[in-house]
Amino acid sequence: MAKHGKKYLEAAKLIDKDSIYESAEAIELVKKAATAKFDETVEAAVRLGVDPRKQDQAVRGVVVLPHGTGKTKRVLVFAKGEKAKEAEAAGADFVGDQDLINKIQQGWFDFDVCVATPDMMSEVGKLGRILGGKGLMPNPKAGTVTFDVTKAVQEIKAGKIEYRLDKAGQIHAPIGKVSFSAEQLNENLKALIDALNRAKPAAAKGVYMKNIAVSSTMGPAARVNTASYR
Predict the structure, then answer these.
(1) Cα(107)–Cα(114) distance, rounded to whole angstroms?
(2) 4: number of Cβ within 10 Å
(3) What order of strands is seen across the sheet that includes strand 75-78?
(4) If we measure between CA atoms, which residue out of 173, 153, 154, 151 comes closest to residue 164?
(5) β pairing state of 113-116 and 20-21
(6) What is the rounded CA–CA span in Å between residue 62 and residue 167?
(7) What percent of the chain has pLDDT over 70?
(8) What is the CA radius of gyration of the chain?
(9) What pLDDT does residue 6 have?
(10) Ramachandran region, residue 143 (left: φ > 0; alpha: ψ -120 to 50; beta: rest)
(11) How many C-beta atoms lie closer than 10 Å to residue 37's C-beta?
(12) What span, in angstroms and rounded, lies between the C-alpha atoms of 197 and 209?
């Protein structure tokens, strides 16, 4: 069992682990319990009533958080010709085709998100093992395989995040930074939960939104009342 330091134990006293809070109160407590010297990320952990082993109950998608994540992502776009120019104009950090593929094959990974036009995927597919292992492979479901590179880049820069069900039936996603106001974090959390509700698989039975908790990078978690989100 992991041992926690004095700061964490003091912060943990602010949050009753057996209590369930309304989202606004939970977020306020998480902000108060964040004691690290850096601007911690605030994350939501959502347990869903689905079977992650069944393909027809998979939950995966994207959502643009109204206040972003507090981190500006470095976007790489695989594109040629006019689409490459569009990506550059939209604010992509790196744009190219075979040159970038070669660079990645040599071990370069100074980017956070990959976007590719569909005509580039036959070449980008060669990076499947490399990018897939890091969760960076462009995917149509995530909106990162598209000819609308302007929209893709602008949404990512504005705070679009991808969520995906893990093997334990949970979704983990950032909803901002401790430096955000409680209202901003609450609105980001609502946007995420709304997206998860819209993504509910038809095959899911029983209670879908089982548990929600919020926490900062180094701090304790606060459980959120799920009733208002069902």
Answers:
(1) 15
(2) 13
(3) 94-96, 75-78, 113-116
(4) 173
(5) unpaired
(6) 19
(7) 96
(8) 19
(9) 73
(10) left
(11) 6
(12) 8
- Measure the CA–CA gap between 177 and 103, rounded to whole angstroms: 32
Matching residue, tokens 């996603």: 173
Residue 144: name the closest of 92, 71, 67 by CA: 92
Range list of H helices, the chain: 6-12, 23-33, 81-90, 98-105, 121-124, 128-132, 149-158, 182-198
What's the number of CA atoms in the CB half-sphere (13 Å) around residue 196? 30
- Higher pLDDT, residue 141 or 116: 116
Q: pLDDT digits over 181-222, tens only?
A: 999 999 999 999 999 999 999 999 899 999 999 999 999 999
Tokens standing for 80? Answer: 């040629």
| Other CB atoms within 10 A of residue 100 CB | 22
Average pLDDT over all residues of the chain: 93
Q: How far apart are CA 75 and CA 92, in angstroms?
A: 5
Total residue count of the chain as it appears in this document: 230
Predicted model pTM: 0.82
Confidence of residue 179 (pLDDT cuts 50, 70, 90): very high
Distance CA 29, CA 40 (A): 14
Q: Which two tokens stand for residue 22?
A: 């309304």
Q: How far apart are CA 63 and CA 192, in angstroms?
A: 7
Give residue 14's pLDDT.
81
d(CA 73, CA 54): 32
The answer to whether the beta carbons of residues 77 and 95 sit under 8 Å apart is yes
Q: For residue 116, give every residue at least 6 positions away whose Cβ sits within 8 Å of its Cβ, in sequence order, or none.
A: 77, 78, 79, 124, 138, 144, 145
